[in-house]
Amino acid sequence: MSRGAKPMGATRREVLAAGAGAFSLIIARPASATPESMAEAIKAFVGGAEVRKGKVALEIPPLVENGNSVPLKVSVESPMTPQDYVKTIAIFNERNPQPNVANFHLTPRAGRAEVSTRIRLGDSQNIIAIAQLSDDTFWSDTAELIVTLPACVES
Amino acid sequence: MARALINVPATAKRGAVIEIKALISHPMETGYRTGVDGALIPRDIIKRFICTYNGEEIFSVDLFPAVAANPFFAFTTIATESGLIAFRWFDDKGRAQLETAKITVE
Asked: Å from A85 to nearest chain B CA?
């Protein structure tokens, strides 16, 4: 069947087959985290406490070329004294296969509440950093970024 | 387990906040990738990193597959006394690695 003989391009059957193919491509992708599963992971971390915006500064490039290694830095406004310090900083993402990225456990001996690492991102998405202070209040910062070459595509 | 790079100042003033950097070579295989035969490559990541200063834990991390290969961490601590800063990594296959650095506080 030549394309020239059929100006309309595709028969109904071809269109249906192509549609089925596209659908199977979608469902063949590994299960991915969603904003809902991220919300669940955050709930598991904060345990129903209120998460307020502020105190936390999440530094991550807004445009990332390679999702396999994205530099990330989190700092929290805190005196870091035995009475008032940051206990945990947790990083969450929306669209990787799992919503958790890393949990950092700090002590008053840190001097400054500041950590850096490198992470993987499977897609353009929002990243959230939540800090748990020693008085068990939770503070957060969100960053949105675009990934041009996501991780997890090389296989 | 692997090659590790750690960066701790050799000397520091008492009470100064010093920056510590630690990097270890590890594939951090996510468990979500498939190999050439189409089968899933089993997960193999470092799950936990702990840093101690003269035996007392000063910093630790729970890692998930979203941490990039060759995990790198930078963090700070107060130089309290001369001694040993120890770094421990634990992975899915039960392997552990210990690295240490000496610091002189004056």
From this structure: 13
**Taking the alpha carbons of A107, A111, A117, A122 in that order, is the dihedral positive or negative?**
positive
Q: What is the pLDDT along chain A (155 residues), one digit of tens a residue?
A: 444 445 555 566 665 565 555 544 444 445 567 888 999 999 999 998 999 999 999 999 999 999 999 999 999 999 999 999 999 999 999 999 999 999 999 999 999 999 999 999 999 999 999 999 999 999 999 999 999 988 876 54
Could you tell me which CATH class the domain B4-105 is placed in?
Answer: mainly beta
Domain annotation covers residue A12: no
Integer Cα distance of A130 and B97 in angstroms: 29
Nearest to B33 among A69, A105, A155 (CB): A155
The predicted complex's ipTM stands at: 0.94
- The pTM (predicted TM-score) of the whole model is 0.84
A111 interaction partners in chain B (CB closer than 8 Å):
17-18, 76-78
